[in-house]
Amino acid sequence: MPRTARLLAVTIDAPDPLELARFYQAIAGGEVTRGSDDFVVLSGGAVRIDFQRVANLAAGWPDGSPRRVHLDFLVDDLAEGEAYALGLGAVTAGHQPGGRRFRVMIDPAGHPFCMVDAAAGAIPTEGGT
Questions:
Q1: Which CATH class name applies to 7-56?
Q2: Which positions ≥6 away from 24 have C-beta within 8 Å?
Q3: Partner of 54 for a Cys bridge, out of 13, 17, 58, 102, CB 3.0 to 4.6 A?
Q4: Class of domain 70-123
């Protein structure tokens, strides 16, 4: 076994992999490549994001339901980042522990993700996501 491993990808379960890949492409850029109807890749960033079809997801925030994944996106303007994600079909989560540092959002498949204010710092502190 190698002493050091490199992160290849993060895989997200989704009822519609292509739709969710396009949602995150609009937020983070990159190129969407369809492997099949059940597996889609978003590449071009620091880490590849894969999307695989899984029906009946039960992601929840913050009720303790198992989370499939949680992504954080650094933005220069928190309000602008939130508005942009809302325009793409995300919703703002009811529970917001980050104050002015970050905004918890829910993607169209029900996964929580955060828009993190670059000026506030990218390292979470107590009460983080």
A1: alpha beta
A2: 42, 49, 71, 107
A3: 13
A4: alpha beta
